[in-house]
Amino acid sequence: MHTTIQRIGNSKGLIIPKNLLDSFSLNERDVVELMTTEQGIFIKPLIQEYISLDDLFDNYEGDYKCTEFDFGEDVGREKVW
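-> structure tokens emitted (81 positions)
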């Protein structure tokens, strides 16, 4: 498969064909890792682990209590719920 390096703003980039993106389940804004090898450039999808809020605060031992906060009077066109 061949593609051409193209100008994208002040940088250069490659257009990766849709069928190749689909075969690796890659979408717009996915993060990939670029590595150099003896053969050239290697592009590797980065699989990011998403942590739930429960897992994130699982070991939290603080005594934080949620309280209301007064932002003052309405100033512009914001919506107050």
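Strands lie at 5-8, 11-14, 32-36, 41-45.
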